[in-house]
Structures are given as structure tokens and as C-alpha cells.
Amino acid sequence: MQIEAKIKEAFEILEKRVPLVHHITNYVTVNDCANVVLAIGASPIMADEESEMEEMVSLADALVLNIGTANERTIASMLKAGSVANAKNIPVVLDPVGVGATTFRRESTQKLLDAIAFSVIRGNRAEMKTLAGREAKSSGVDSRDEGDDGINITQDLAQKLGCVIAMTGKEDIVCHAKECYTLHNGDKALQNVTGTGCMSSALIGGFVGATHDPLLSAILGISTMAIAGEIADKSKGISSFKMALIDTIGVMNGSLMLEKIEIKQIF
């Protein structure tokens, strides 16, 4: 099936299924992640108590793990949640926020990678270079890395980790071992809103909970945020732009996606 037909079908499935997306996520952006999941037509739940993970994950259609404000307690909950999700064939999305910033983040992410089979891992260029074992430039959780080797890094990671890898930046790259795309939507104004990466990962969770197609879901989650960034009203300032961004995600559908998406298949 051509990517265009898959995109249209994905929105139809999302509307019918209204998947429940369980997040253990960044408390800086947790409300925004919940709102974009609702806006796209899925249902969010945010819970990080380890003792309820088996019951909570069992209710979900997808699980999103985000280490942005992780601690020892929430990492333990993530490990439990991921184990339950894998056992029940529930897709899992990882957002390794600032993985290269501290030893705790690197070691915690490695624990997650060792214990959990992920469907999609989404991160910025510096985060992906860190996962690939390469030197990366970052400032806190933000990437300061540039270069033209993004496709090679993304493809190598997809083969190494056995899942879809989505690298976001000036050019977004989404690959699994046998297929790779570059995405060319977006607006610089998105850099002025905290958590657009976290929200993109949450959107991926919504799509993969509906379709169980990790590659397509990564493309759609990232493109939804990028296209909304292009369309949303920026004339009234950053705060209003953020609200307009969520409003625009709320009207996203297959037709609008197909009209606006700029996608190129690499292989």
C-alpha cells in the first residue's frame, strides 16, 4: 500500500478506535502531552505508580516512556510498565530526553533499552548520536548538534535496536531497517515552545496505539506537530501560538495531512 493510502487509513482507524495511551512522562510537559493526544483523537492517561503498572498498562493500547524528569522511582515504574506492555504486545514509544546530559540519564536509558522491546524511539540529533555511541553536542536537553550524517545514524540505530528510529531536527528522519523517509515540514516558532518534542512522542503513541504500524505512526506523529507549527497563528505571541498549535492538531485529518506533508523516501 502506498504511503498516501496508509495515511488516510490511519486517521480513519484512529477515529474509530480512540486508543488509550498510557504515559510515564516529563512533568514539565505532561499536561501538554495529554492535550495533544486528546486533540488528535486518542485518550491519554498519566500514571507512574509502580504498584499499579500491571493493571494500568493492561488497559492501554500504547505506552509512552519519557525520561525528561525521570528519577529512580519512575525508572522502576517504566521498567515494570515496559515489561507488561511487551508481554501483552502493546507498542512502546521511548523519548530519551537529554540522554547525554548526565550519567543517570545514560545509565537509566540503557536499562530501558536492555529490558524493553521498543516500537519507536524518537529524539533529537544529540540524543540519537548519544544512543549510537557517538560524541554529541547538547545544552541540557536541547541539541546543539549539526551535520549531514543523520540518515546514517538513524539507519544504523534502527538496525542495532530493532525498532523504528525517528530523529527530529531541521530535517526529520524516520527509519527502520528496511525503509527510511525524510520529512520536511515545520516552523522555527516550534523551537520557542517547551515540549514540542515530548508532544510529538505522545502523538506517535496515539497513532501507534491505533494502527500498530510503528513506521507510519512515527511519520504521522512528527508530521502532525510540524504541519500544525506551520499553520497555527503566530501573530499574537508564544503563549497564544502554543494554544493555536493544539487547536490546529485538533483539526488535523487525513486530507489535511496529505495536502501539507512533505515526505521523501530514501530507500
Automatic annotation (TrEMBL):
InterPro entries given in the database record: Hyethyz_kinase, Ribokinase-like
Cofactor(s) listed in the protein's UniProt record: Mg(2+)
EC number assigned by the record: 2.7.1.50
Keyword terms: ATP-binding, Kinase, Magnesium, Metal-binding, Nucleotide-binding, Thiamine biosynthesis, Transferase
Presence of the UniProt keyword Magnesium in the record: yes
Domain of life, source organism: Bacteria
GO biological processes: thiamine biosynthetic process; thiamine diphosphate biosynthetic process
Residues binding substrate: M46, G195
Any Pfam family matching the protein: HK
Any GO MF annotation of the entry: magnesium ion binding
Family recorded in the similarity comment: Belongs to the Thz kinase family.
This protein's name: Hydroxyethylthiazole kinase
